[in-house]
Amino acid sequence: QVQLGESGPAVVKPAETLSLTCNVSGGSMTSSYWSWIRQSPGQGLEWIGHIHFTGRSDYSPALESRVTISLDTSKKQVSLKLTSVTAADTAKYYCARENYYGTGSYSKFDQWGQGILVTVSS
Amino acid sequence: DIQMTQFPASLSASIGDRVTITCRASQNIDSFINWYKQKSGEAPKLLIFAKYSLEGGVPSRFSGGGSGTDFTLTISSLQPDDFATYYCQHNYNVPWTFGQGTKVEIK
Questions:
Q1: Torsion angle defined by CA atoms of residues B57, B46, A91 and A117, in that order, rounded to the nearest 10 degrees
Q2: Do B49 and A106 touch (CB under 8 A)?
Q3: Closest CA–CA distance from residue B30 to any residue of chain A (Å)
Q4: In the predicted model, what is the mean pLDDT of residues A55-65?
Q5: Per-residue model confidence as pLDDT tens digits over B81-100
Q6: Is the pLDDT of residue A27 over 90?
Q7: Residue B55: closest CA among chain A residues belongs to which residue?
Q8: Residue A104's pLDDT is what?
Q9: Tell me, what's the pLDDT at B65?
Q10: Residue B59: strand, helix, or coil
Q11: How many CB atoms lie within 10 A of CB A13?
């Protein structure tokens, strides 16, 4: 059973870069995409982007100019960097495994980390 | 981007009630829809994928249906553990988007 765990600073200053790491244990990082999803306090879920072990990545157009997701299969880590943060980026950030199945077209977020709350504040 | 409109935003129901939540996509998404359950302070949990397929370990009282742009999540007999917020999510093409959520509360 794959387990995911997010880590990083709980507070980031405005205009700085938010950097988070997701550690993957108990499974392989190949044949899956790895996503970051966030949830502002009391709000719904927002997909940030994902990366495949081949290096292919996609991002939400709303965040694309500020986001980079990377993968280190040797360390079994997925990383998120979000630049020039503002108070609007305050949220709980989740990493999730995006599992593809069937003909390879369908995907599902079938494993999630516990999430990490990041507050943007000076 | 494909928009997912979920309704109602909240509902009150009693134990044993049949509950239906609806999600409407802004375009045809075939069967590319998943449903998640989130309890307060916890990560979302996958319930249903590909419109009606139950994820392993999910009780059979949960079912998914619909087609094209309109989809439903039904709980046939509400149990105490089902009081939570439910989200739909499409995986038709990136960017993936979620519905705004439906909070199921105790009447």
A1: 20
A2: yes
A3: 11
A4: 97
A5: 999 999 999 999 999 999 99
A6: no
A7: A110
A8: 67
A9: 97
A10: coil
A11: 12
How many CB pairs below 8 Å do chains A and B form together? 56
Residue B103: alpha-carbon gap to chain centroid: 10
Nearest to B95 by CA among A96, A68, A59: A59
**B-chain residues near A94 (CB < 8 A):** 43-44
- The predicted pLDDT at position A30 comes to 86
Contacts of A37 (CB under 8 A, 6+ apart): A45, A46, A47, A48, A93, A94, A95, A96, A109
Strand ranges in chain B using DSSP code E only, listed in sequence order: 4-7, 10-13, 19-25, 33-38, 45-49, 53-54, 62-67, 70-75, 85-90, 102-106
Chain A residue at shortest CA distance from B44: A112
How far, in Å, CA of A32 to CA of A4, rounded? Answer: 13
Question: What are the phi and psi torsion angles at A58 (to 5°)?
Answer: -140, 150
Q: What pLDDT score does A105 carry?
A: 82
